[in-house]
Structures are given as structure tokens and as C-alpha cells.
Amino acid sequence: MTPSPEVSTSAKARAGITAFARDPLAHFLVLGGLLFAGASALDAMSQPVVRITQGDVEQIAASWQAMTMNPPSEEEMRGLLRERIDEEILAREAHRLGLDEDDVVIRRRLAQKMSFISDDVAVVMPATEEDLLAFFEGRKDRFRLPERYTWRHVVFSAERPGDSERSAAEAALRSAPTGEDPAGDPSLVPGTFSEASREAIAGEFGESFYQALASARESQWTGPVMSPFGAHLIRLESRIPASEPSYDAVREQVREAWLSEERDKRNSEMREEIRRRYRIEFDAGVPQP
Amino acid sequence: MKRLAIAVSALALVAGCAQPQVKSVGDSEAQAPSTIENSMREPNPLRDAFFGDLHVHTKLSFDAYIFNVRGDPDDAYRYAKGATLDHASGYQVRLNGPPLDFAAVTDHAEYVGVLPAMNDPNSPLSKIPYAADLFSPDQPKIQAAFNRVTAALRTGTPAAEMYDRATMGSAWKVIQDAAARHNEPGKFTTLVAYEFTSSRDGRNLHRNIFYPTARVPDAPFSAFDSQNPEKLWAWMDAQRGQGIESLAIPHNSNGSDGIMFERVTWDGKPIDRAWAEARARNEPLAEITQIKGTSDTHPALSPNDEWGNFEIMDWYVGSDTPVTKQAGGYVRDALKRGIEFEATQGFNPYKYGLIGSTDNHNATPGGSSEESSYFSKVGRNDGQPVQRGSIPKEGRKAWTPADAPTGSAVRFQTWGASGLTGVWAEENTREAIYSALRRKETFATSGPRIRVRLFAGFDLPADIASRSDLVAQAYARGVPMGADLLPAPGKTPRFLVWAVRDPNSGWLQRAQIVKGWVENGEAKEEVFDVACSDGLTPDPRTHRCPDNGAKVDLSTCAIDSKKGAVELKATWTDPMFNPSQNAFYFVRVLENPSCRWSTWEALRNGSPPSPRLSPTIQERAWSSPIWYDPQP
User: Fold this and answer.
1) Partner-chain residue, chosen from B33, B449, B470, that has the shortest CB–CB distance to A250
2) Domain A145-240, second-level architecture
3) In chain A, domain spans
């Protein structure tokens, strides 16, 4: 389409117009050109936009200040904005080229985001009283209270000479007037325990001491039973058997447990729903998880 | 799939106001479970010892969360009651001994709950630019981002983008709710509490603040409100005026580089009576021992105390800066300064009762205070022996020059498996335990549940130690630890010292009285052995028990069960008592030597103990002091 240099402009114009009117190739080329220009204009309208908001600027400034203890200068701000724009453009381009697809860090982060989404969904409607009651009835063993022991003791200190604490305990048990408590040595260990668990008793006095107490007859002084503190005479007041508490007594715990179970249930339903959309295939010899 | 779509759009709607997950929908006054009312035993007017941990962090603390700790306040209280918990380094942990009697979660108020929110993609806080770095798998990136977080704590100026009051408010509520849920009068006591994480140029001024009831301020007063503890006391006073009682307990004075117990105010002015009273009113107690070292005393301050070199931590907190000033940074020194003030000016800002705790950041109250099952304190940063310098690197079984600890391990190796708080209280309830803290009838231990009592009186019977009603006599005719002994002209006070070992720990070697007194305006100190094990008696000239010969087998960590005492009990009179001198007296009970945690770890690894560390320690307990003031 380069006009011939030797043709005068006006002559070219005249000739051109005439020629244009007659030349289908010229028609094609001009129309094509218009189309191309139009397409470019359309393209410009759909060009991806990176918008920097006032909020972004404030956030960038705040995080700069957190790092350096000073607000960014104008020049620093321009640099930070350039960095932010570059980061955004490069990230999008990397995404467009599929660079994120085999990146393990990105994959994990996405999976984590997805699981946060599904976990959040599982924040369920508040339980009704019927829900909680049914939940409690179905899982009474979970709210079971372990066996507990209310007991008293006197101790004959291991600091007594030789092994005389044992014989002193035996003598005290024999000589205690009926209906009265035997007298032991003063002790820094508490004399009374109320509804103590096995962990609390065995944890301090030893397992064999706990066994002796757990099998003792109620409301009767007996012993000596040995512990690291010395020789004990013990009196089991009552053995509170493992029990199932009433619903009212544990309603708060029930509600907590219900909520946590319900959340887990919704979570796994959600995962299952997602999982169903995929077919998982295994190479031969790969163990099935 | 439709459900998911709905879910996601619902999520988009709430994303703008997402908050950290709250575990329960229950209200904060939730009823404690079952049979409580009828299971309470009668209160014991002569008081029993209860053990607890008053310094524990959970994932709500900014640092614990970075350490990969995910246990929350509920988990912490469950652990204290004996439950098993997952450690951030991937193993399980559980208390060795019986459950604790009480515990308080003390998360850092600064940014409380903010880090978990930053790791929640649905929270706007996750959009903070460095949030991604904080939770990346890249350790240097984490450290760089974390340094920005801690920089705010050094300056006291929060980063605006992290200082989200709504998030911190919900975390404060989570803490209160968990305490309410787990408080079981008669069985287990919780206290609502938090840590005021202040420092001055990196010098540690941290305090924990405790509340006796569920009535607490809307928001804690944090180091972002002011780094100046004087402002904290003023705020506590104002709260008290509105009926919200509280007390503060400073800790890690060893990392304060001498500024925790200064002789001047924040502005460098001389301390006056009003200042001293404000401090004493708000800070009745000091934490004398924890994992980051013991703040009783330092060899530089107590050169004549053969046991003063115990688990010394000579670093700034969370930094590699060495401490250069011990005076003003140790509790015994503070007690001495206090009586100097009393003697010369008539007021005492440093009249501290003593407690111990762990400062564990693993949501494990009482955890890691036992040498044989130590797991240190900062999650995955020190969760393995090699990270804390107790075993050679790269699986080696012998120490080579290349095995010298580097980085944080240099500091971690100096940390200790410590401590617990003991209180003498009528019963295990919030009211009784808080009252014991208030009247300083408390003691500290380096981990073992050693029980120790101390009484003093001018009229204690000479034979009190052998009487069957000794405690009743002691209360009737004397005063317990934490109290004042009033002058009685012409008389000399008698002291009753009594301790019993922890059956899960070693045997007792000796009980001592540490005395501080003022002579010509200057405080002095001396350590007196007052009860010896194995039938031995203190030398009246040296005030020392003869060596009882107890040994540790370093190839097995076995201790000698034939040496030492189950119980030590003695009366004592001060051979140097001068009724015109201000004085304090506290008890220190020492166990026989036993393996330090680092030796247990070397043993399990099949390598020799680190040549840089003491292979053994002497576990101990400290009573609160009794003060004598000639002019009360």
C-alpha cells in the first residue's frame, strides 16, 4: 500500500479514490484495518487492571512503620508502591502461565484456605434442648465420673529411728479406744481427702498405697500402709463409685461436646462432598490409603 | 456442591468480621460440673498446702503461636488436671505427678489472640503483608517477620495493623470463659490472669496480673498502654476503686539488667512513701524461679552463699544481650533494699512473698518443671534436646568442638526445669487461694512438691517441734511466712521450720534460714543451716551441716535412697538477733544432689553430659519471708 513516490499528492488522492472505489483488495484491507483497530480498542477495555486503593496505601505505610518505626517518606512510598505493583503483576502473570500449579507451598496454602472455609461453615446452629438430651443419652459413658475416694489417715513419720514407724502404727491402731481416731505424728501432708481420684492418690502416695486404700473396708481404721512419708493408718470414709451424672449436672459439657462433634461431622460431610467430585486413581503397587 | 457454594458465599459475607474461633458457645458463668457443692470437705483452719502454676502461655500469646503451640486455655487447664497434650514438636506430654491444685493462664496481653487470627485466611488480619512470612515454612522469613512483631514490644508502640481491639477482646473472653469452665471449688482452682509484657530498652519488667473472681476489666492494661509499671499500678488502684481487686507478680527480674527493683522511680526520682505503698499494695509477691532461670540471688551478689549459683540466666529475655548488672535484678537483693528503705525512711516497696512457676509457652501448667521429663518452654524452638544444647549435634555420641551450642541453644542450655507455687490455704477455692497469695503465705519450689512451713514468735514454746499440736500453737503464738513479727522488748524470737519431701523427687539434705538485716543503714545477709538430714547437726561456728555424703550415679541418674530426710523439722533462734535492726528471714530447703535435665537427656541419648553444664543440681523450696521491724 505504499504510495508511489513519484505521484503527486493531489494526483495520488484523486487516483487513489478512484482506485479504491474499484479495488476489492483495497476494500478488504481497509475493512480489515478498521476491524483490527476496533478489536484493539476492545482489548484495551478488557486489559487486566491493577488498582491501588487508598486502603492499600495506608496498609503499606502501616507495615513500613511497623518495620522501621517511621512513616515512609514520599520517595519510599513510591518505591513501596512500585514493589507492590510489580508483585501483583508478576503474581498474576505467574498464575496465567500456570507456575502455581506445581508449587508445594502454594498448594498447601490453598488446601489450608479451603479447609478453613469448610471448618467455618461447620459453625452450626445452636443446639436445642432435645438435641443435647439425645446426645447425652447416647453417650453417657463419655460423661462418666471415675471412682473417687473420701478418706482420712494418720502417718507415723519415716524419720522415726530404724523402721519403728511401722510398729508405732501397729501399736497405735491396737491401743486406740473404740470409736476414737488413733493418734499419729504431726504431718505436713493433709489428713483428709475428699473425692480424690486414683491419679491424685497414686501420684502422691504410690500405686500400692492406692491399691490398699481402694480395697479397704469403709468406716474402719486399718493399716499400717506404707508410703514414702512413712507408715499410715487409713480410714476409707466412702467410695464414690464411678457414676453417670445427671444431664443437668453436665449440661455445659454436653453442649461443648455436642458442638465439637457436630462441627466435626459437618466438616467431614463437606470433605466427603468435595471428595466425591474426584476419582482417585492409583498406580499399580501403590498402597491404598 | 450447592451447599458448598452457599457456604462459600456465606463465608464471604462474614469474612469482614471474622474472629478467632471461640471454642464454646457457653457463657462465662457456666456451672462447674456435678456434685461440687456436696463434695467440699470442711475447710482446714490450720491450712493445707496446695500446688499450682501461675505462669502459663497458650496459643493466644503472640510468641507461643509462632512457636507452633496450638493448645488453648482449655487445653492448659485440662493438662493441669492430668490430661495428655500434643507438644508443638510432635510428641505427647503429661504431668508426672498428681494433678495440680490450681493454675492460671497468663497470656501476653499485647496482641493477645492476634497471631492466630493472622493465620486465619478468613480474618482481615491475614492480609497483613508479613502474615504470610510468619507462617511460611522458611525459618529466616519467620524470624524476620517475628522480629517486627517483637520490635513493637520493645518500643511499646503497637503496629496499627495488628492492634485489632475486636480480636484481642474475643481472646480475653476466651481466657475468662476457660477459667470459668474449669474452676471447680474444692477440687481445682483457676484464676483469670494475663501478662503485662513491658520492657525498657529490652530490660525485662514483665508482670502477671491476677483476679480473685470472674469480675475483671473489659480489657487488660498492657505494655501498649504504657511500658511504665507505675501506670499499671495506678490503673489497678483505679480498678480496685470500682470493686475489681487484682495483684501483680513481677518475674524474670534476672533479665532486667538491674532495673526491676531500683532505688528510684521510672523518672529517676527518689522513691517516696506514696510510691512504695502503691508498689507494695499492688505487688505483694515476686516470682523467684521459673524455666528462664532462678532470681533468688547471683554469685556476684551472695558470694558467701554456697548454693547461690542455682540455674543462673544471665541474658536479657528473648535476646542474646548479656546482663551486666545483677544488683536490682534479684529478689533477695530486693528484699535487702526493702528493709534498708524501711530502716532509713520508714517504708518498704519490696516486701515480697515468694512464688515459683514455669512460664511455659506450651499450654502445659506445671509441665517441664521436672528434670527427668523436661521439654523446655518455647514450643518447636526448643522441643528437642539438640535445640537446647544438652546433646551433641548430628547424632554424635561424643562432644567435639563442633558441638558447642550455637544460636538460641546458647541461652536455652542455661534454662532450668522449674518451678511451682505452693500456698497454705484453708481449702482449694479461688477465695482461699487468692487470700493466701494476698497474705503471702506462699512458697516457691524448683519443681518438686516440697512442702515447707515457717513460723516465728516470741512466745513459741521451746518444745514446739515435738508437740502434736505444733501448727495450732504456732498460729496461736506466732506468725506464719509472709507476715510481720512485731517487736517484744527483751525477748528473742523463736523460729519453727518444717519441710517434707516430694515422694516423686529426691530426699531432703538440709533446711536453711536466709537472714537479711540492716546494719548502719546497709543491708547484709547470711545463710544458717537449721536442720540437717541423717541425724547430723549444724556446726555452731560455721552454721553448716556436715556433708551427708549423698551421691548421684551419673551413668544412671540413680540417687542414694539411704541418704537424706523425708522430713526436716527444727526450732531455731537467731544467734545474732538485734532487736533494733530491721530484718527478714526466709527458709530455703535443699534436696540431695540429683541429675539436671540436661544430664537426663544426655543419658537417654547415650552421650556424656555437656561439658558446659553442671551435671547435677540441688532442687529446692523457698518460703516467703517473715519481717521484723523494730518500729512498725
Assistant:
1) B33
2) Roll (3.10)
3) 9-44, 145-240
